[in-house]
Model the fold of this input.
Amino acid sequence: MAARFTSTVDLLALLSEKIHNRNLLYNLCLTNRAFNAVFSRQLYKCLRLDGHNISFFTDPDKLRILVQSGNLAHTRVLIVLKSVIAVVLALIANQREILLAETHGRHHSNLMIDIFSRLNHIIVSIVKHAPGLKSFACQAIAISSESMDVLSKCADLQTLAILFHFELETILSHRIIGAGSRKEGSEDPTLDFRHPELKLPAFSGLQRLSLHGIWGNVNSWRTQLVQVFLNSPRLKHISLSVSLKSLKLLELDRRASVSDKEFPNFFERFATHCDEDEVQPLNLKSLRLGWKLVFPKMSGMAKSILNTLEEVFIDNDESQATFNNLSDVFGSSFPPKLRILSFRDRGAKTWEFLPSLLHSARTSALGDEFGIISARDDGHCPDLTIHKLCGVPKDNLPMIMFALDKNWDGHETSVAQLPGPSFVTSLAIKAPEYLGDSDELPVILPGFCNSVTNFPALKALWIMNPFLLGRGNQVSEMWQQAWTPQGCAVAAVQISQASRSLRYIRIGMNAWRIWRKDADESKVSLEVLDEWEDEVEGPDFFHVPFPQPGNIEMHHVDWRYQGY
Done:
């Protein structure tokens, strides 16, 4: 017998849990007080600070009203996106009547420090009144020790994901010089920046930790990270990468010892430390070590985690041996639960070693449930990705991602040669960075439409805009004009009509759910998904800033609270 609802409120509460469109939730909250009491819980479950709404939070009066409203008690996820930087910078410049084009060096750094201070004040104010916070993520800002201290007091915090600002060393070194703290005779002002101001508290309940672009003296992070690992027995996901400038400073630092310069091997050293002290090994399910962080040798504690690992990322660059088959990575002990193995190969053998990897995967105990991601960035051929469809019941079909150049037609042969195109259910394509003589997106539609017909099982398609992938300096104004919402919508309709099986499409950062009429599947209607609705309901593996593994940007899974 179906459970009875004691009141209409219970029914509305159940309904609210299935709604992820934020505009719809907001409008429902405005209906009446009863609706507001129910739907505000779902609306405030995830609080996102971005370029569209940051002006609300920078207003002291509005922030105070939010804090006093009690709605933050429903917040489980807090995300600060990097788009807030430009908006707050423009706000400060307008208040001080500053021309941003004329700010540089120390003046620019002082502005950035002001931005970081304001954002940290907002973070502290929100977190203090969000006792149920479970996930925190921020991009491209400097988190203060006060913010970290407040976060450490959140008893339910499970996820911490931080992408540090890529110019953080330069910004803080300018501030240090301006404060008169630079020592006389210092050859390089950045060398005054010896220790990170950020101190990692002793988190005890963390399950997911992602730190990207680690900055400053990277060795001063080693002790902190080890303590976090040791104090977090429930840790299941670790994702780390180091800023290029920090590694460069470490290499040039004459005062650094040989062991200091071996920071890329720190995870292996941590494993050795656990062996020597007989520490209980981590129950890791996901390990992603970005560029220059070496994948640990499978021995001792590192070998013990093989029994729990489900996802592994390896940056196969010049600092490591080339992996040509799975035994090169794991030895004779293949991880019994491994679902995803990701390679970023900077050599010239990506296409060559892929068949042997596929063969060794399929001949292992995992069979066809195993997926491999392989990426190549030397510019001579498309990036290729094969990915198991995780999280889809009874569906072990692969996913493919690859990049195109302006000669789209030249890659159709490559697409046809991909293993098992008839089984591919998800496809992500990085569109060419040059359109030619037209400023219209449909100029390349024939190639896309022809290709989607080669994938009869295709359910989800993402055409990535290179301008949104951090390559704005290399993209023409003509290309930017092509990616208008109207142009993307027209393209989405035409591509959806070309594929009878497609149910989801994203072009750039615009996403649609595809509805088809039973009588004629070529007739489609597209439902626009807002950003959060797309992140909750869309394919998980599409929710990365750039699906090519190894990018220092945070992945969507780094911050998503799994309670939805």
Summary: The chain has two domains: 7-43, 77-257+286-292+306-558. The longest helix spans residues 105-128. The chain is about 35% helix and 15% strand.
